[in-house]
Amino acid sequence: MCSAQSEQIDGPRDSQAAEEPAEEAGGPAPLGVGVSATGHGPVDAVLARLADVDQLGVGGHREVYEDVHDGLRRTLAALDEQPSGPPVPRAPEHPRS
Fold it and tell me: Which residue stretches belong to region Disordered (predicted)?
């Protein structure tokens, strides 16, 4: 097969396609999802890890989401372990007549 026949079958070769940066050729694109501060330092620190998703391909998202989920679970469990302060007094019981 001659090169003219090959070009008709395969189409013209596009040298520009080979020169495109990896980002434009299907690399990770930022999701652009913002995370608002909660005002609770430990939670905000865990949620900040979500910014890593923008730097990773889809295959790396799972690890980040699992880390964030585990961090939030630990933070919530730590709240249950903290003393909650003095006990709340109960309302006096009225004698039944």
Answer: 1-40, 77-97
Q: At 96, list the tokens.
A: 């039944």
Which tokens hold the place of 21? 């940066």
Q: What domain count does the chain have?
A: 1
CA angle 77/81/84 to nearest 5° reads 120
- Whether 66 is in a domain gets the answer yes
Inside any domain, residue 91: no
| Rg of the chain taking only CA atoms, in angstroms | 29
Report CA-CA distances (Å) from 9 to 1, 14, 15: 11, 14, 17
Find how far residue 43's CA is from the centre of its chain. 14
Q: Which domain holds residue 42?
A: 34-80
Q: What global pTM score does this model have?
A: 0.53
What token pair was written down for 66?
A: 């699992």
Divide the 97 residues of the chain into consecutive groups of 10 and give the mean pLDDT of each group: 49 43 59 84 91 86 94 91 72 72
